[in-house]
Amino acid sequence: MFINFWYIAAQSGEVKFGTDRPLKVMMLGHTFALWRDSKGKVRCISDTCTHRGGAMADGRIRGDCVECPYHGWTFNGEGTCVRLPSLGANAKIPDRTRIDAYPVEEKYGLVWVFLGDLPEEERPPIISIPEYDDPGWRSIILQADWKIDYKRSIENTIDPAHNEFTHPTHGFLGVREDYEVRDFTLEDGPWGVGYHNRMFAPRLAQSDMSKASGRDKEAWIDGGVGHVGPHCTWVQIDASDSMKLHNYLLHTPIHETLDRWYLVATRNNLLDARYDTTFADRSAFIAGQDQYVLEPQRPRITPRNNAHEFLVPADKAIARYREYCREWEERGWRIDVQKFRSEYDRVAYAIPSPARRQHKSWVLPAVPLLPGKAATAAAARKA
Predict the structure, then answer these.
(1) Looking at the predicted structure, is the pLDDT value of residue 214 above 70?
(2) Domain covering 130-326: architecture
(3) Spatial distance between the Cα atoms of 377 and 383, rounded to a whole number of angstroms
């Protein structure tokens, strides 16, 4: 799991103004409190009160702030303690009482939280979904929780060889003797790799979709896939000019082996809302085929290198994805999950927020990270 990326905390409709209590959400093994203030802005703070470890997400919303249910310490959306009842009404509240608060953006009907300490100008972007606001396209959102390491799903999405065997909706279950994965060229970007290729696909089973595509038989179709950051993927399936399906599978790891994904499924055909269920059912069915192979996969945690897997040319996008993950690890962004897990009951860690760049003294320690390239080099020099 990595800090310093934008993660989805909820769908926008889940965070309502006027509720009594915040929405409790777990991301990257940490719990957070979310609420919508009187200006309509979603706020997100760390769940652990800096006083005695009370759960802020179990507290009460007081105006635009959240009150800890244990001793009434109250924090605003910037993480500042604005009320400390036991000191009295006129007491000066120490700055060190502050709690981590995180940048929030709402895009594509989703609440995105930046979990990291980078300043705004250095942050990776939220994945672009241009079809979402395009009047010539229609979008639906699905979500589910799977018992997997989210990186397994990323690698599955960018794997061109699994469609033939995992998805009868896309392939032929391996019965074609002439089956092979055509060579493809990787296209690197600043935050991920993708590629485009052609695949031979069966006709669409649903009559409405088959008619909309303009084809009623097997055919070569154009496709493309890729990832942005360690946790977001895009898929383009252009069955014909009149039938394009562009999907975005966006992952928020709840913890190391529990993944919550959100699918923004977009289409340029059958735009009437009455077809939403047809496309939602098809997407859920296809996702279930992936879940069937991913949840039993061993090891559960995606390997950090290729030493114990025999990769072939069709896996080159997966190998490149792992290289990107190593690059982000070298930046010092990868959580030391083993240390975090081993100390979970003894230490209340927090994902570091951008405010830690301005305020140096914090009650809660930042989550342990694997040493980046600079730290490793410095340690080697000392040795």
Answers:
(1) no
(2) Alpha-Beta Complex (3.90)
(3) 10
